[in-house]
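$ run holo --ligand "nicotinamide-adenine-dinucleotide" --emit tokens
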Amino acid sequence: QGRPLAGRRALVTGASSGIGLGVAQGLARAGAAVAVNYRSGQEAAEALVAEIRAGGGQAVALQGDVSKEEEVAALFRGTAEAFGGIDLLVANSGIQKDAPVGEMSLKDWQAVISVNLTGQFLCCREAIRAFRQGPERPGKARGAIVCMSSVHELIPWAGHVNYAASKGGVRMMMQSLAQEVARERIRVNAVAPGAIRTPINQEAWDTEEALEKLLRLIPYGRIGEPEDVARAVTWLLSDEADYITGTTLFVDGGMSLYPEFVGNG
Ligand code: NAD
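-- output --
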């Protein structure tokens, strides 16, 4: 296997668990130096950094809340101090605070929008500013971003209006940014996972009944793993995907294909 991200320097937000952790491992395997952002999972972030270094890679753990402007600026300063600059961003941090609409507090609406949408905006803005300071790469993108979206940028989700609105926002933010900075040879894309086995949705897969119900929504017939998402992110960030910008790549085993129509014709 080649190392398509050799010499590239990446920041992955929310990398102490789940998809972010898998993505950080994947980017490191592909040769990137990886800044592992965490909010509260310091032990897990440091264990991941140790694992990457033990494998001969470069990594650093950086604490920070992506919904806070100053902390995001500090994250990018930390990445630049560790690696001398930054070329790649995976804006992955996200939360859910579910409630039927009549019971959804303004606080829970705002919490989800602040992390999932504003947090990605702050990270993308800082990344674009930093890429502009970095070297040009003749014939190649100077910087690339992947925003972690969800099938819920497309599929409405009753009982999760804050989450679905945040991901719908991520889609339009990603496309508008992609359009705005393409001329500068900065690529901005999104990955939209379906159901991936992580702590965020544990109740959807940790019993047999729950898993069976979940699998009815997945034509491909299995739950996704963080590595499935990591491979897609790695490719989108690599020069292999050089002509791709403003696109959402669904990594969902067909969840967005109206699975209730299977065998219904
Ligand atoms: P997770 O809970 O394991 O990971 C979320 C990460 O975000 C955690 O590491 C958490 O510490 C971090 N985080 C939360 N608030 C933060 C903040 N304010 N600042 C910095 N970091 C913060 O869940 P996951 O499934 O790995 O989720 C990762 C991303 O993938 C999220 O954006 C989520 O919406 C998206 N996603 C997940 C699935 C799935 O099925 N698991 C599906 C679609 C999209």
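-- notes --
The domain at 9-251 is CATH 3.40.50.720 (Rossmann fold).
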